[in-house]
Amino acid sequence: MMFESKELHSGRALAVFCVLLLLLSACSSCSSNGSGSGPDGGTGSDTDTDADSDTDTDTDTDSDTGPYVTDAGPWDWQDNPDAGEDCGPGCEQVTFTDKVRAGEWDVWGELVVLSDQSQDIVVYNFSNRTFLELPPPYGVENSFSVGCLWPAIYNSTVVYAIGRTNTVPVRQEIILADLESKNQMMIWGRDEPEEADYWGALLQSIDVSVGGVVSVAGCGDPMIYNLCIFNEPYPSSGTALIDENAIVWTSIWENKIVFLDVTQWPTHNVRGYDLSTDQFFDVTDDDYYQNTPRIGSNKVVWQDFRFSAYAPWEKHSNTVIFVKDLVTEVTTQLTDGSAISTTPDVFGDIAVWLDWRHCADPQGDVYMDFKCAEIYGHNLSTDVEARITNIPDRAKATPRIWGEYVFVDMETESGNSIFMINIPPSLL
Questions:
Q1: Contact 28/245 with Cβ under 8 angstroms?
Q2: What is the pLDDT of residue 144?
Q3: Does 38 score more than 60 pLDDT?
Q4: Which residues pair with 378 in a beta bridge?
Q5: pLDDT one-digit tens code per residue, 126-151
Q6: Which of 5, 20, 296, 366 could pair with 316 as two cysteines, CB 3.0-4.6 Å apart?
Q7: Whether pTM exceeds 0.90
Q8: Which domains, and CATH codes, for the chain?
């Protein structure tokens, strides 16, 4: 199956990830034993020409578990159960499930994939209002009962992680599901080391594109959170692009990966890796804390703490959103720090983020109140900013953008779901 063209570390760095999930749990909860999800005004674009110095090509020794996963079926798309809750003009509920696990969802084209609180992987087609619940891997219900699942989607390909507690020894695996062929296969698997305290480093922050599947943890040393890439032929043992315990959060678009690198603690810099050239590149290179980088269409966005008196795991205040164009190497500050701004995303020329400027206390404790936050967007080509949502008293988290829509994990009467919101014409 060939892909077509998609678009930590120290214990302190791992705490950044854990705190972010706690932050998101104001809108939804994640029962993972693991953790989950930028900044600089400079325009530096230094490239590591000695990629070998950072790259460890040592591979894991996988068990003899075969790559093909027995599917219980069926692979039937079903109609959504209802029209959803009213969220105002230009807003529509697109997922209907047992609550979305915080940050564990993705969008591609007309499809949204998520992990729900029952730890099922569900795909929604918002254009025809149907959904597909993927068959449980190996036909075993609840075979993935430990750790967050981190589903990601690219074209008709869905990838996700499972922790198999129904085997001895227990295993971690990455499963690839092809929605067109109605097939699932294990593309990577590893028995957990006996010396581990039940689990080694838990797979997290998985993403997929033409370049392959990228994750935090899963290759090299089984006890550390490193930067891993898995690509064909499958099954794969994976390659550790950085085999140090210092990687948090990954995002991939086509052949470029961005990630949060804390190998030079206490700095948190956003770095990248170009799979087409096998070279690292810097997105930021300074002494400020960065957070939650995302890449799309050769642009990288992130949350920056340069104006904050706190570290990311302490409190989010006076945070700002930055974007860097990897083609022009121009870095632009999008918010001024007068209010909290978090979890940005970018598609084409439009960046979006969650913003606290309309809260009674715009520098309030974000870990407590997501209900006053709204989504803002900025068109990078026209330099126009606009408010995208006006939905007070509903907790929101992790906005994502695709085409002319913004998607957000938002509170409902029964829990939380993914909602789709039209981008204002002024931003298009």
A1: no
A2: 54
A3: no
A4: 351, 385
A5: 999 999 999 887 776 655 555 458 99
A6: 366
A7: no
A8: 11-303 (2.120.10)
3-state SS, the chain, equals CCCCCCCCCCHHHHHHHHHHHHHHCCCCCCCCCCCCCCCCCCCCCCEECCHHHCCECCCCCCCCCCCECCECCCCCCEECCCCCCCCCCCEEECCCCCCEEEEEEEEECCEEEEEECCCCEEEEECCCCEEEECCCECCCCCCECCCCCCCEEECCEEEEEEEECCCCCCEEEEEEEECCCCEEEEEEEEECCCCCECECCCCEEEEEECCEEEEECCCCCCCCCCEEEECCCCCCCCEEEECCCCEEEEEEECCEEEEEECCCCCCCEEEEEECCCCEEEECCCCCCCEEEEEEECCEEEEEECCCCCCCCCCCCCCCEEEEEECCCCCEEECCCCCCCEEEEEEECCEEEEEECCCCCCCCCCCCCCCCCCEEEEEECCCCEEEECCCCCCCCEEEEEEECCEEEEEEECCCCEEEEEEECCHHHC
**pLDDT at residue 268, as a whole number:** 85
